[in-house]
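Input chain follows. Return structure tokens only.
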Amino acid sequence: MSDFTYPWTGVTRDLRDDAPPPPGTRLMRVRADVGRGADAWEAAVRALLGWDMHRATRGLRVRTAAPEAVPGAEVVLAAGIGPLRLRAPCRVVWTTRDPDRAGFAYGTLPGHPVRGEESFIVERRSDGRVSLTVTAVSRPAAWYLRGTGVVGRASQRTIAHSYARALGRLCAKGSRRR
């Protein structure tokens, strides 16, 4: 098992909205409603913890032997085609599963183009809304990302919104099954 490529493992677990990220890193947080009601909640938790949200994200390939996101599970995400495919190896750092909140975070492993951690949390609100929050604390690791600045951060935000759209589709599909 490889070591994480950053020293602040677990940083996304309790990072408040007003807290600064570790020095030299950027904080990215995206929140989006993905459904409403008990069926949407159950579908969201299943899809998130079972890797289906990642698999349903357009342009992303997912390889893992773990049927569910659990601490220590490794996953390799890939985007692009042929020799231009970027590989992003990660390991699950922590998970949470409460009556109205569930999710996990994974951290980067050697070969990932960035260094840091990303968490995915679904929450069921008192009004029945189900939302996804994606939080990333990271910095570029690969030479080809170091000069991307605003463009790189915008790409990361775009991917987070793609996760939310994928989870929304899965929640709608799960709600229709009942």
